[in-house]
Amino acid sequence: MANCYRGEVDLLIGDESHVLCLTLEGLARLESDLGAQSLSALIAMLAEVRAGTIVPVLTEALVGGGQMDRAAAAALLAQASPPLRLAQAYTALVRATFSEPDA
Fold first, then answer.
1. Which residues contact 88 (CB under 8 A, 6 or more apart)?
2. Domain ranges in the chain?
């Protein structure tokens, strides 16, 4: 179960719930992989939901959630459906990572 105070969110794929969490290592990897020049540029990039960023971000978040390596995370996301659920999880994750949790 996700801990909102750690910036975690749950993603349901099939019958299994997976914890998503963007760690500092994951953010650094995304900054490099997505070509952002700085963390603030990455945050601005992530604020806009783009098809090309959803899978890389969720892959890093599955790894950050501590449940699997990158290859397993990418394979799991490749078979996940519907795509709208992934976009919703992406939006919730970005909000949880960069916002204060609700009191």
1. none
2. 4-98
